[in-house]
Every structure is written in C-alpha cells, then in structure tokens.
User: Fold these one by one.
Assistant:
Number 1:
Amino acid sequence: MKFPSEPFKIKVVEPIRRTTREERDRLLRHAGYNLFQVPAESVYVDLLTDSGTSAMSDNQWAGMMLGDESYAGSKNYFHFEEVVRSICGYQHVIPTHQGRMAENLLFSTVLKPGMCVPNNIHFDTTRANVEHQRAEALDVVIKEAYDPHCEMPFKGNMDLIQLADAIDRIGRDRIPLVMITITNNSGGGQPVSMANIRETRALVNRYGIPLFFDACRFAENCFFIKEREPGYAEKSVVEIAHELFSYGDGCTMSAKKDGLVNIGGFLSLNDDQWTQDITNLLILVEGFPTYGGLAGRDLEAMARGLLEVLDEDYLSFRVGQVRYLGELLDQAGVPILKPIGGHAVYLNAKEFLPHIQQAQFPAQSLAVALYREYGIRGVEIGTVMFGKKDVGTGRTIHPELEMVRLAIPRRVYTNMQITYVAESIIELYRRRQGIHGLALTYEAPVLRHFTARFEELRAIPILQQAAS
Ligand code: P71
C-alpha cells in the first residue's frame, strides 16, 4: 500500500490536552458511560463524527474574510450557486444551515401521509424527516450490505429487484421520489457504482419517478468509482461527479462532510414547482433564499470547500488515511467491517467482545474502554442507537450489527495520530477479556443514544488486571 502522506502542511495548530486514565475514568462515571456526555476537551483523538469537524484550508479562511453579509443578493451566494451548478448541474440551488434542513424542506413539500421514499439505506435524519411526514422510509440496499465479511467493491448499491417490486406494490403515485445515499453511511460508508446509479435511473424512468441523491460524501463515492469501477480509471473525479449527478433530478447535501466546512448544506434540483414551494417554506423557517440560514462568509467557505474536495491528491490522502487505519487493524486480526469505507472504520464489537452478550451492550462497552484506556472517542452503532422495544413484550429487539464507528475528520489528524489509534486498538484487542458489559439505567423515549446512562456490570480496571 502506498503510504497516504498528507498533501498539506500545518499553519495553525489547536493544542490537545492529554488526560490521565484516572481523569477519564472519573469523567466516564460522571457521564453515565455515555460518550456524547464527555467534554470534547478531554478527548485526545475524537472520532465521534466526520461531520462538521473538518479543518478548513487557508483558501477557505481567506474566503471567510470576503463575506458579503448583505441580506439579499450576497455576492458569496452567487459564487456558491455557480460552484454547485458546475458540479451538480441542477437548475436551482437552495442554501440551508445543514443537511437535515434540506431534507426537511424537501420532504415537507413533496410527501403526504402514507407515501414512501425508497433509499439504499436512509440515514437517521432522512428517515426521521420522512417519518415526520407520516410517510414510510424504505431501505432497498443489496443484501450483502448487511454482511460485515462480504468484500464487494460497491456494497452501497441499490437492490433493483427489490426497488421494482416496491414500486409495483406501493404504486408510482405514492412514491414522489427515490433516493440514493452516496456513500451509504448507515451501511459502513460503502460506495454506490455508476452502473447501479445508471440502472436505478433507467428503472425510475419507466415509472416517471424523480431520483435524488443524499450527496453528503459524493466526492468520496466518485473517488471509489475511479479506483474500482471498470472504465473510470482515466476519468477525472470531476467528470465522474458530472456523470453521476446527471442521472439525478436533484440532491440534498450536508456540506459538513464533503463540503469541508463546519456548518452548511443545500438542496439543488431542477423542478420549478417544487423549488417555488420549497423556497416559500425556506423563507418561513430558515431565511431569505440567498443565505438560507448561513452567513455570507459561510457560503464562501462552502463554495471553496466544494471545489477543494474534488482535488484528487486530497481524495487519495483522505480515502487512503481511512484505509491505512483499517488495514493496520485488519492485519493485526482486529475484527472490522469490510471493505473499509470512505469516511470511517467500523469495529465489529460482536466479534471483538464475544463474551459480552448483546443485552449488555458490547459496542458501547468497547467505546467506553477505548476512551478510558486511550482517550479515543468513537461512536456506538448498535443496540443503544438502534435497539427497539417490542411493544407487546417490552423486550429489546437487537439490531443485527454491533459496531463502534471510528469516523475520521477531514484533514484534522496526522497519520501518526492515526497510527496511535491503531496501536491502541490492537493493544485493547489483546486485553479484550478484561472488558465488561454495561447495564442501562436511563433512556429517553426517542433518540436515546444521546442521553442514555449506564452502569458497569463489573468494574475491573483492565490495566491492573493485565499487570497482575
Ligand atoms: C454522521 C452525521 C452527523 C450526525 C447526524 C445525526 C446524528 C448523529 C450524527 C449526517 C448525515 C449523513 C447522511 C448520509 C444526512 C446527514 C445529516 N451524518 N445524510 O454521520 O451522514 O446531515 O448533520 O448536516 O444535518 O455523523 P446534517
């Protein structure tokens, strides 16, 4: 493997504090063993999310100083509009403060109760926004997406047979649009192939249903197409992005990922009537159409970020750094989800901690141990986040996968810090027998993972145990 050396040098640094194990242990107790409740200042390497955590370039910061803060018609809006059009090719560009607002505006406008939106796998916020309209959020990804061992190059692909069946069953009139999430975050950051996108387009065309992308990580998806899909190696990522978006009628975007900004998003589409309705709602809840909940400077940073993210040196470093972490772990026998995705490495907690049953939250236990022992923060994607209560019996229905996601912020950590993460996890894996399960002591009625509290089932400090 080519070592993914950083295609930038560092001009501004943000010191990070090292904490002691004792201090982290205290913080964990205080936080009820919930890492969302731990102050970021006490985290050494923060891999909670790659969303809004990017480092901006000198070019983006310079753009921030050129913010035109006029209420209407800011020059930064026109630059932003031109950039989005040059990448996506859709007629209308509507800025929003982040991705979920773009989703909310779109679904509030086009969905009626009882309708359905198929997607490869809906991300939490798209699902929640679809369901908020009392419509169904249907996942139609290929079945291999749910197998953590299956190594397919495009595990984010739509299952076209399932999609056609769903359209026939539900009826075209109850499906105002089909979505494709690129890359498929909830399935491990796996890409969707151009062929699959083209075939999805052909299928929805037969019914006259519009196709939208949830485009948060579109540049990473396009880079995977270049690397893996026959016929694309010689094309530039920009050309690939043009072709990809040409199969759609619009997209929602959280620019907090591949926009390389800390806040921002947009909705871009061709349909004039939908745009008019969405714009009216935008004015009601978000802001005037030339700023959409953002400052002029934010629009400028986003315009510049969207161009920078398509730089192929950047992308090969980005995808390479995530792969570098995954390969170090894989080579040491640490169980991870395969193949390695574009923005994160996922630890397979069921295999990492086979001695902890699912009712005792193995992925949460692993995330807690990783923070306590090494100051590294990941996020649980397992029973805490997706466990459901059976209304009849009151028993928990466990999700198939128990994962700890290590999402890598863009341009933030050096490869040495990533090596530290890998070595820490490899060491933790060797001492995994010392990790114990958790019991839930508090849960909120919705989105419980943000505020849940736990207690440890057997508090044995694993470092001491290893020494004895
Ligand atoms: C991620 C996030 C951020 C997040 C959001 C909610 C709970 C926990 C973490 C956000 C996405 C996403 C996709 C595919 C839309 C959004 C929403 N991801 N689609 O992975 O991954 O964007 O946060 O800007 O509203 O940590 P938004």
Number 2:
Amino acid sequence: MIYPIIMYGDPVLRQRAKDIDHGADMTQLIEDMFETMHNASGIGLAAPQIGKSIRLFVVDGTIIDDEPGLADFKKIFINPVIMDELGTPWEYEEGCLSIPSIREKIARMERLKMRYFDEGWNLWEEEFDGLKARIIQHEYDHIEGKMFIDYLPPLRKRLLKGKLADISKGKVETEYRISAPLKK
Ligand code: NI
C-alpha cells in the first residue's frame, strides 16, 4: 500500500517517535514503506513521514545509478540509536520527501556508529560513512522530530518561509500523493 507523504508543518514530523515493542511483526509496514518510498523516488523514508510516530526508517540507495558506493545500501532500521558521530563535518545538498522542491547544503559528520534491529529483530552494531552515514543521519533526525532545514542559518530559513508555508498548504508539485496539514 502506498501512503501519502506527510508534508512539512504537520506536528507528527516534530514528535520524538516512540520505540517499537521488541518482536512486533513489522513485515507489512516495512513493505508499505519501501513501496511508498520507491513510488516517490526517495532513497530514505522514516515512519513519521507516513504519519506513524514510531522509531523505524528504511533506506534504499541502490536506485541511484551514479553512486556505486550505495549499490548494496538497502536496509531497515528499527529502534536505531546513533551512539557516536565521528570525523569532520562535510556539506552535501539534501532534499526531503516531506519538503518537496527545496534542496539545501547541510553539514554533517563524516561517520557514525549505531545500533539497530533489522526486520527479524536481530541486533546490529555497525559503522557507516560518507553518503550512507548522511542518509542515516537525515532519516534518524526524522524519528527525533528534526528536519534538515533546522540546520540552516536563520536568514536562509527566512528566505524559504513562503515556500515552506506553501508546502504546508499543499501548494507544491509532486509526483506522489501528499498529505498537507494546512490544506483547505
Ligand atoms: Ni526527509
């Protein structure tokens, strides 16, 4: 099932998402999240973006042809915890399915160490770097109630204010179904 994607301005994107009960059957929801993400040509999707305030996100970098480093990067993260972020901050232009039409350069740390469960409730402790770390940091922020535009300098954010207001009203072009909090 393809869910509509929740737009910027919806309170669900600002909540700290709740842990999922250990052992819960996530099969259907995970399948739906991949379907929803692929339908929107996204490389990451967090549960709050489909209106569920739970600590789950999926990533799939395998659809990006020009990033060979992501060829095997299709994963599910349940109840993830970022334990450490290391290295030097680097900038990269990010976008978000919940903030369509806006792309901005954001600085994030190079590497991270995390712990998470997969769909079979196996516990993993793993390190990621580069674009993989970047995608994880972006999605992890979603389950913490954060969004990438929060990192922008105040002036830059002010310049985007009108565009963000339009997105909250659903006045934005997308190739996927959206749910906008202020749509009349
Ligand atoms: Ni996002």
